[in-house]
Records
---
Amino acid sequence: MTDELFPRERGEVAPGAVHVPGWLGIDRQRELLAACREWARPPAGLRTVHLPGGGTMTARQVCLGRHWYPYGYARTVVDGDGAPVKPMPGWLAELGRAAVRDAYGEAVAGADAGDSSAFDIALVNYYDADARMGMHRDSDEKSGAPVVSLSIGDACVFRFGNTETRSRPYTDVELRSGDLMVFGGPSRLAYHGVPRIHAGTAPSELGLTGRLNITLRVSGLD
Ligand SMILES: O=C(O)CCC(=O)C(=O)O
Ligand SMILES: [Fe+2]
C-alpha cells in the first residue's frame, strides 16, 4: 500500500481541513493499537452506541476523558455500564498538539483557531468491514479548537463536506493506516462521515482486522 510510484501528498481538503498521509510510523501505530485494545476492555470499554431514533451506530466506540453519548458528554458511561470514563493520557494529548503543529504549520486557515493545548477527550471508533459512519458534525464541544483524527488498520473513504448540509459539495479522501486528518477553523463544524471501509487493507504487520479511528478533541467543558 505504501510503495506506490508517487508518494501520497498532504493536502488541504477544505479551508482548515488538512490530510497528512503516513503521519504515524508503523511502530507508533502498533503502540496505539495496543493502547486501544486496553481501553476497549470493560469497565467503560468498547460499546455499541444507541441513537435516540432507535438505531445503532455500526462503528463501536470507547471514550477517554469524557464519555460521549448522543448528544453530549458525561463523566460516566451513562448509556452503558455506568462506570467512570477512562482518563485521557497526557501522552495522547501531546500527540494531538504535535498533530496540529505538523498539519497546520504556519500558513493554513484555522492554525490559531481555538486552544489546541488542551486535548481532553479521545473517541476511539472501531469499524469492521461493514461499519459506516453517517454524515455528522462534531458539535457537542464548547471549544473551537481543531479536531485531530488518526487512522489505524483498514483504509476507508472519509467524506469531508461543508458546514451547511449533509450532502454535496463534499470531497472523498482515502484515509489509510497512519494517516492524520486535522479539521479546524472554517472547517471545524463541517459535516463528515465514513461511507466505506476497504476491508483487508490494513498493514499485515499490525495484526488488526478492521479500522480504528482515534479522534482527539478539546471539550471546552469545566
Ligand atoms: O472514523 C473516522 O474517520 C471519523 C470519526 C468521526 O467522525 C467521529 O468520531 O466523530
Ligand atoms: Fe466526527
---
Amino acid sequence: MNAMSVRTQSSEQPAEAAHRAGFACFVGRPNAGKSTLTNALVGQKVAITANQPQTTRHTVRGIVHRPDAQLILVDTPGLHKPRTLLGERLNDVVRTTWAEVDVIGFCLPANEKIGPGDRFIAKELAGIRKSPKVAIVTKTDLVDSKTLAEQLIAIDQMGKELGIEWAQIVPVSATANKQVDLLADLLIPMLPEGPALYPEGDLTDEPEQIMIAEFIREAALEGVRDELPHSIAVVVEEMLPREDRPADKPLLDIHANVYIERPSQKGIIIGPKGKRLKEVGIKSRRQIEALLGTPVFLDLHVKVAKDWQRDPKQLRRLGF
Ligand SMILES: Nc1nc2c(ncn2[C@@H]2O[C@H](COP(=O)(O)OP(=O)(O)OP(=O)(O)O)[C@@H](O)[C@H]2O)c(=O)[nH]1
C-alpha cells in the first residue's frame, strides 16, 4: 500500500526537468562564423578564429555547462569540394561528425546571399535524416532588419526546395552577443536525457598540444595567407618542463615544427634574417602562456614536408 501511494504521489508532482547531455555541431561555409559562435556559447576562446577560411582543421569541442544540461559543441572543418586527399579526409570527418551528433546547426551569414557553397552543404544535410537541423543566421549585427527578414525567408525556401525540415531558424550575432543564450536554450531540448558527460570546468577536450599547434599555425599564416593559403601544418614535437628551475620560476620548453610544402616557401615563413619567424614565435608564445598559465620557451623549426597534402603517410603523421 505504502509503495503504491508513493508511486502515485511521485507521478502527480511536477517532474523536475530531466538533465540532458549531448552533442551539437555547427556546419557552414568557411567564414560563416562557426568558431566565433562556439566561443560565444562557451564563453572563452577555445576554437581558433581567423579572417581567412579553413582555419579550423581539427575538431575542437567547447562545452556549455548548465545546471540542467551539458551541450558539447563539435566544431568541424568546413566542408568543401575536395581537390586533394586532405580535402577528402576533411569532408569524411565532417560527414562522420554529422551522423554522430544530436543536432546540427547550419550557419549562414546574414550579410551574404545564399550561394552555391551553401547549397552544396544543404544538399549534403538533406541526406542526413537522423539529426534535427537548426538553421542559424549568423552575423546579424551586420545587416538591417529587412535584409535579415529576406534571409530568413530564403533559408525557409531553400529548406522546402531541398526537403530539409528546419527544427528552428534562429538569427544570432556572436560578436554582439545577441540571441546566443537563446540558441543554447533551443538546442538543449534536442539533446537526449542523461547525466553530464564531461566534468564541469572542462571547456574543451582538445589536447593542449593541438591547441598550441593551432596558435602557431594561425600566427604563421598571418599576413602571408595569399602566398601560402593551405600549405602550413604545425606539429608540437615535445613539451617538457625545463630542469633545474626554482619552483616559483618554472619554464616550459616547447619544440614545434612548422611544415611547409615547398622549399621556396621557407623564405616566406622565416622572413629576412629570420625576423618573421621570430615574430610568429613571440605572438604564439604569448597565447600559449595565456592558455597554460606558465612561462614558455618556444622553439620553432621550419621543415619541408613535400606535397604533404597529398601523401597519406604524412597526413597521418600530422594527425589527420
Ligand atoms: N560582425 C560579425 N562578425 C562575425 C560574427 N561571427 C563571426 N564573425 C567574423 O567572421 C569571420 C569568420 O568567423 P569564424 O568564426 O572564423 O568562421 P568559421 O565559420 O569558423 O570559419 P572556418 O574556420 O574557416 O570554417 C571572422 O572574421 C569573425 O570575426 C558576428 O556575429 N558578427
---
Amino acid sequence: MTSRIGSPDTQADLDVRACLDRMPPRSFVMVAGAGSGKTTSLIKAMAHLAETRGPALRRAGQQIACITYTEVAVGEISADVGASPLFHISTIHSFLWSVIRPFHSDIAAWVAIRIDEKIAERRAHYDKPRTQAKTKARLEQEIADLEADLAAISEVEKFVYGTGSSYAEGILGHDDILKLTPACVAAHPLLRQLVAKRFPYIFVDESQDTNPEVVEALRHIAGEHPGLCVGFFGDPMQKIYMSGVGTVPLNDGWAEITKPENFRCPTSVLGVINAIRAPGDGLEQVRGRTITVDGIEQPVAGTSNLFILPADAERSARLAAIRQWLAAETGDGLWLSDVREGDVRLLVLVHRMAANRLGFPNLYAALNDRAPMSLSEGLSDGTAWPLRPLVQHILPLVVAAQAGDRFTVISTLRSECPRLEPARLRGQATAPVLTALQQALDGLVGLLAAGSQATIRDVLTHVRDNELLRLDDRFAMHLVAEPVDDGSSGFENVQAYLACGVDELWAYRRYFTEESPFATHHGVKGAQFERVLVVIDDEEAGFRQYSYGKYLGYVPLSDKDEANLAAGEESVLDRTRRLFYVCCSRATKDLAVVAFVPDVAAARTAIVAQNLFPEAVIRGAEHLG
Ligand SMILES: Nc1ncnc2c1ncn2[C@@H]1O[C@H](COP(=O)(O)OP(=O)(O)OP(=O)(O)O)[C@@H](O)[C@H]1O
C-alpha cells in the first residue's frame, strides 16, 4: 500500500486540523462510510501533529496514541507515519496494558475482586439442585485453586500480560485487560490524570468495534481533562463484532465530522454498496475511485456481478467456473491467481468451504458446529482461546525450529516458557534446563512434522508436561485422562478439537496466514483488494446471528426475528446487512457475489426484488457454460 499521508486534503481533514489546532484542542468523532479515507485522515492527523507539536511533545515526554484493531493495521499505520518515539501505535489490548502496567497494587486489588467473582460463580453452580456429584468435585477443586490463587496474589512481584490468565503467577489474559483498565480508570482520578498527561492525543480507528467500557473510559478522561484530545474514527454500519460499541456518543462540545466521498470503490461497486446501506442509515456516498490518465482524472467503472447457483456438491467447481468467467469477462487473468500478488479474495462467511478445500474440515466443525459464539467467531481470526496458543506461539515456534531460526526460538521461549522465568532460574544451573528444553522442543517438532499422526491433544499435553509454554487455565479440565463434561459451554467442541490431527492445524494455519485466496467476511475489515468474490452459503455457514437467506429474502424470518423487528431491536437483518456492506465495500476494481441457494428460481425472484444489484448483472449457471 502506498503511503496515505500524501492523499489530497478533504474538508474532513481540514475540520480535524481545526480541532487539533484549537487551544485547548477539541475532541471529535469522525463517522463516515467505507473507503471514505477515515484511516487516511487519522494518519494525516498524526503527521500534522508531529509537524506542529512534535518538538513540544517530545520535550514534555508526551506521545500521540493511535489504537487500532489488529497487529496488521498497527504495521500499516506505522509504515505510513514512520517509526518515531512520538507515536504510540498499538492494538487496544497493548494500549490498555501500557496504561495500567505500573499500577501494581491496583491491579492486585482488581485481581482479588475478579477471583472473588469467579469463586462466587462456582459456588452458585455448586449450589444448583441439578449439579452432578462429579461436577461438584471439580468445582470444589477449582474453588480451592482459586482460594490458593487469592492467597498467592500478595506474593506476586510483578503482573504481566499473556495469552491466558494465571493469577498466582501474576499473568493476566486478554479479557482481563479489557475489564481491568476501564475499571481502574473509573475508580482512580489519578490514573485518569496520568493518561491525559502522557497521551494528550488519543485516536481510535475502527471505533465501532471498540468495547463500550473502553470508549466510556476515554470519554470520562476527556470530560475531566480539557487538554486531552480524543478522536474516534469509525462507521457504525461496519460494526461486525457483537462486543463493539457501534455509535460513539459525543461529549458536550465535541465535534462530529463526516466525509461524503468514497475513494476506494469503482462506480459499479459504489452503486451496490449505497443500495445495501440505504435501508440501514440511508447514507449515500459520492465520487468513487478515480484514476488519472494523460493528466485527466477519470472515474473507474469496475464491474459488479451476482451469481445465484444451486447449493449442491459442485460448489468448489462452480467457484472455479465463476473465476474463469470473470477473467474472460473483465479481460483480467489475475482472477485465476491463487497467490497473494494476484489480489483476489474469496470471502466466505465461515471457514467451512475454505476448510473443506484446504484440508481442515474437522477442526472447523469442532469449533463451529453448535459452538458458543466466542469459539465460532474466534475461528475466523484465530483468537478462539483453544486456538490461540497454537496459532500465536506453538506453530511459529516449530516453523522457526524447522528453519534453524535460533533467534525466534530463543525469544519465544524467553517470553513464554515458565521454566525460563527469572524466579525459576534463580539458584539453578542454566545448562541442564536448556538441554531439557531442547529435548522437549525436538519432541514438539517431531509431533508436528509432516506426516505425523499426532493429535492436537498430544501436542498440548507435550507442551504442558514439559512446561514449554504457558497454557490457558481452561485447558486443564480437558487435558486429563477422563475429561468430565461439566455442562460448561463449549465442552464438547473443545474435546472434538483436541481429537483433530495436526495436519488440520497446518492447513488451518495456511488459511489463517493468508497463503490462500480465501478470507472470511470478518477478517477483511479495513482492507481492500482489486478482485473480491463474496461467497454466500447459509447452508454451510451455521452461524445463527447472520442469515444471508433472510437478508436477501429467500428464507422466511422466524417468529423471534419478527418480534425483534417489531420491537425495534437489532435483528438478524441488521447484522447481516452490516457484514455484507463490509465485504462488498472492499473491492477496488471488480466485485462478484455468489449465492449458493436451495431453490434458484425462488431466490432469484427474492433477490431481484431487493434492488441491490442491477437486474442485468444477476446471473445463473447458464452463464458459466
Ligand atoms: N483524500 C483522498 N484522496 C484520494 N484517495 C484517498 C483519499 N483518502 C483516502 N484515499 C484512498 O481511499 C482508500 C480507502 O481509504 P481508507 O482505508 O483510509 O478508508 P477507510 O474509511 O478507513 O475505509 P474502511 O472504513 O472501509 O475500512 C485508500 O486506497 C486510500 O488511499
